[in-house]
Structures are given as C-alpha cells and as structure tokens.
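User: Could you walk me through two proteins back to back? I'd like the raw sequence and the structure tokens for each, with a short line separating them so I can tell where one ends and the next begins.

Assistant: Of course. Protein one, sequence then structure:
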Amino acid sequence: MKHLALIVFLSTALSIQSFAQTQELQGPFVFESKTIDFGNIKEADGPVAGSFFFVNSSGGDVKIENVSTSCNCTTLDFPLRPILKGEFCELPVRLNPANMEGKIFREVSLTADKVTYHLTITATVEAAPVGLEDLYSSVIGENVRSAALEYRFGYAAQGRSQSQSIMLCNTGSKAVQLRAESSNPFLQVKCPYTLKPGVADGMIVTYNIPVEPQNYGQTNDIITLFIDGKKTEINISLSAIMVDDLDRDDAKAPNMQLVPAYFTFSKIKKGRTAAKQCTIVNNGKKDLIIRYVKTSARVATSLKAGMVVKPGESLNVSVSMEAPDKEKASAEGTVYFITNDPFRPQKEIQLMLNTK
C-alpha cells in the first residue's frame, strides 16, 4: 500500500508538472500536503513526529537554501545535498508540546530556488497536570516552598500602610508551624501560624514607611522563616522603592521629562573622566522636587537631593564617568534618582563607556 500511495502521488505530481511550470510562484517542489495536523496530543507524552513529502517537479536539481521555524519547539530535518530532478523527498518534523495548551499553530518556512514555502504544523495539546511542587518550585526549608525566593514589592509610599501576599505551600505529609522575621523595622511580616499538608496560604508583607527625608530610594530586605521553631537556611528577599504618597489624579502634579536619558562615551583614554550634560524639564503645574540621588561606581553628577525645578522650567545636570584603567575595556554606570512626579517617581540616567 505504501508503494501504491507513492506511485499515486508521483503520478499526480507529474501530471501537474506542466501546470506548475507555468506558475512562477509554484516553485520547483510539489508537496503532498503543506499541513501536518497531529490532532489531540498530551503534553506529558513528550514530542511527536511526522513528515512533509514533496517531489522536485522542476527541470533540474534544486538545493534547499534555508529552513526556519516560528518556534524553538519545532525542528525539521532536510537534506543538504541538491534534490534531484523528479526525486521524492521526505522532511521529518518534530514538535515538542512542552508548556503548551489548547489549539496551537506553528510554521516552517522553506526556501528553494528563490521560492519560499510556508508549511503549517497544528495540534490540540492537553496540558500536563500541574502539581504543587511545579507551582511552588523554590524550596525554603523542610517541605515549605514558595513560587520564588526574590520578590519585588514595587512602590512603597511614605505615610501609608501597603500590603501584598507571598504564597507559601506545604508539600509534606504533616502540618508545620511557621514564624517569620524581617530585617527592616518598616516591614512587617505575618505568616500563617500553621500550614497544613498539601495547602498553600499567603504570608502578608506590609510596608509602613515613615514620612522622613531619608526614606527614599530602594530598600532590599530579608525575610527569615522559622519552621517548627527551626531557622531556615534559605531566606526570601523583598525589594521596594520608597517614594512620596503621590496622587496620580492631581491635574497640577509635576511632570518630569529627562533629555537625554542615555549617554555613550567612546574611545576614552584609560583612567580619564568623560562628561556630558542632560536636562530635566518640569512640564507640570507644581514644583518638581528631587528626593533622592544615587550613583554607581565611577559616576558623578551635579544632581542633588532637595533640588527643585519650577513649573515650566528646566534644570541642566552634568554627569561624568571615570574610565577603567584598562585599554579596550567597557563599563556601565547609572545615576538613579527619585522625584515627586506621580507617574514616574523613579528614573535613571544610563551611561556606557568604552576605552581606547
């Protein structure tokens, strides 16, 4: 039957050869089908395989010039040698359905003799069951897990209590007692006293930042867990950006514009200092106040905390960077600052330097 199918396909290909030659877009290859439908497959079963079949219906040998896929989940094998005139050829293809669910479409593009063929692979994927260990992949201690070990709180406003939840899961067979400590007095942590087996529950983290001039910028804090009274070796880190309690609905609020925000210093002699100037513009109707400024290593700036830009006015800011004491070296630097602009309280001036 396989030989019969091949004969039928070859005869069909030959019968349309003259028609194919009259259509420039048809190209040298005639495909049995340009679509592979794997039907219903399971993610848990792993990769599936199939093949595209075609005949070189041109008047000469043709080499496949390029093959590309729309996803790394798809691979295609093809001959590097020229496809002979009239040759029947198979292109094996594999699809890995990992992390897929539902109806999916993938494309393979094949170019030969300056003609590109678009081949389609489709399937309906049944996702693999997701267990607690998959959802909470970071082990903290014993059988207590979290989705991650590093979390970003976002903006933490002065004078306001703000809370978020970090989920913890007990993948063990018995209940555990939990207690948490924070490295920052402004950060309170409340975790479930008892975590039952097979259960996930939220640990509430709350920032209460006092209204003080020094309470701006990024804070990097550590949460230490105690499981059944024993301190875990692995901690959870939490970062937040301390800003003013800003009102985004204030039509008169300051509105900052930074021009430019990125500088490149090229061919700087080793050990020398290169400098540029940028401008901060206040397009709002209230004073723009610089609350906090921090520079990375080798970077200096004229921008200082406490500077004020009046509505409609601008401030020229100098930035400089010291080159590494090496030839053909590169370095990056930043000027990080906080303002009272409610829409963009955090901003960076980025610097790139290359030595001769």
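----
Protein two, same layout:
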Amino acid sequence: THDFRESPEQPDFSFEEIERMYYYEHYSDHVDAQNARNEKTRHTERNRTVDDLLKNNKTCPEESIYQIGTIEESVPPGTLALIVSEFYEEFERRFGSHIHILDWALHLDEGTPHIHERHVFDCKNRYGELCPQQEKALEELGVELPDPSKPKGKHNNRKQTFDAVCRTMLFDISHKHGVHLEQEPSYGGRAYLEKQDYILMKQKEQLAAQGQKLEELTLKIEDVDNLIDEVSSVAYDKAVELVTDEVKTMTHQEDIDMIEDTKVWLQSPERKAPKKERDYAVARLDGVVRRIRKAMQSTLEKMKAVLLHADKKKSITEEIKKQTKPSIVEALRRGMEEQRKKDSEKQAQEKQKKQNMEL
C-alpha cells in the first residue's frame, strides 16, 4: 500500500491482491444487489462479479505515473517521494471522500525515478449502493465542467478539470521544494510521451535491442551447419597458407643463408683474389639463389594446388566439421542458456526490487 511497512511481519500483499480486497470489501454489496435486480427482471446475462469491475475500463482503478524530468535529467528519488507524499496528503484532504488511493510504488530501476499510483473513483448510486463511477464521483466533489455552458462530452468533462487541479497542486508543492516545472500540459508530442509513456517506451526499446543483440551474438542453432561449413572452409584455406609459408621458410632457407654468408666472405677486403673474379663468383651465387627460390615457389604452388584440390579439401574439411561441430553447438547452446539465465535472474531481481520499493 502507500503506507510504509512498519514491521517485516506485516503481510506482504501484491498490488493486485490489495485492489481485489478493496473492491470486494466496498463494492460486493452493489454487485450482489444489481445481480438480484437482473434476476428479477430476467436479465441474468447482465450479471457481473467483483472481478468484472476490476477488469472493466469504466470501473477499474485508474493509474497515474508521476515523473519529474527525463532519463537525462531528473530530481533525486528522495525529492520525488517527498513531493508526491505531500501531494497525496493534499489529494486525500480534498478528494478522499470519493477518490481513494489504493497503492503506489517508487521505481528506481528504469532510468528515471518515477512513481506508479492507482486510485478508484466511487459514490453511491440511486439505490444507495457504493460503486465505482468516475464522472458522478467528481460531480459530487463539486468539480465543474471545463465549459459549463456546453454539454458534457469527450472534450468537455469533469476529468479534465480534475486533472488540471491535480497538476496545479503538484506544481505548487514542487515549487515549495525548489523544483520548477513547465505548467502547460502537452498532449500528443514528445513532451507528453516523456511525462506519461516515457518509461514504457524505453523498456520496449531496451527489450528490442536486447533481443537483437542476443540473436546476433548467440546465432540460431539451426544455422550452425552453414556456419561450420563456412568456418571450416576458411580455416582450411588459412591453414594451407600458413603451412606453405612455413614450408617456404624452412625448406632451403639454410642453403640460401649459407650462400649469402659465402657472398659476404667473397666481398670481404681480406680476400686476395682479384675483384673481377670475386664479383663473378658473387653473381653466379646470386643466380643459384634465384634458382633455389624459383624451385621453392614452384614446389609450394604444387603443394598448395594439391591441398586445395576440391576432393582433398572436401575430405579434410569434413573431418574438421566432424571434430568441431559438437563443441561449437555445445558452446552456442551453453551461451544461449547462460543468456537466458542472466535475463531470468535480472527479471527476478527487478521484480524483487519493485516489491521492496512498494511504499
């Protein structure tokens, strides 16, 4: 409820249970009497239950969201709670005879501190039975139509006046606490969304983003075969490149290094042979190195061609797939299970946090 729980031993009811108990306690007599009248006039198809009152748009509790600012800029939770608490006191003083606050909760886990509050309008009908009815309750409270000279309608009803009075009350209390608000309501645009539906909009956006990210990061199990085909093929091609490069590095490299050392030795000033003969020898050795490199390249191309031949590649990649598929599938399943577990734990934490924050 909207009162602080004084003791941990106090029963912890959900808002739905609180609202249901309130409706049964206050409106069940009306429901029973109306059903009796229906039976008397042989119109039992009109019979309703108290639960029907809770579900019907005209008789169910009305919800209000109190939020000051946006996710980018807002007041501290304590300030919001203080302002709204004083607002509820004034609300009860002015409207408590016909409008009853059933429950409210301060939410801190959705970006911007905000308060969800639910209330019900009621008054006695012509039979003297207390029942939920908004317009009649406001009329008995003395709330006038926005334009008394015009008939009551969708754009001229007491709820509009009531909302304006509540806004003025909230502005006055906020101003007393040093919080200045825009006093002109804006319906239909971004400002209205920020004040009324901002939290729900952000939640939907976050859920959509999380769903997309989960799909991108974990992949679909049914696509694993295609993934493994592609990965195995790429892995094999890369392995061939690495192997042939390694072969190129290892084979004949010692011979080339020895020839290069010999060239350095021949070109050393300490050698007594004529320079012309030494240059000739170096040139011949360069030719030997070129032939070795050419032979190496030819050998590597032949080796690569054999390894990349369709039949050879297919047989080896099939073996790669056979060896890697179980581990990849298991890793994906494990990743998806971990993600689901995290999501479930987060939802449980948020639910618990919400219950703990109910005031």
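The first helix runs from residue 15 to 40.

Let me know if you want the two compared in more detail.
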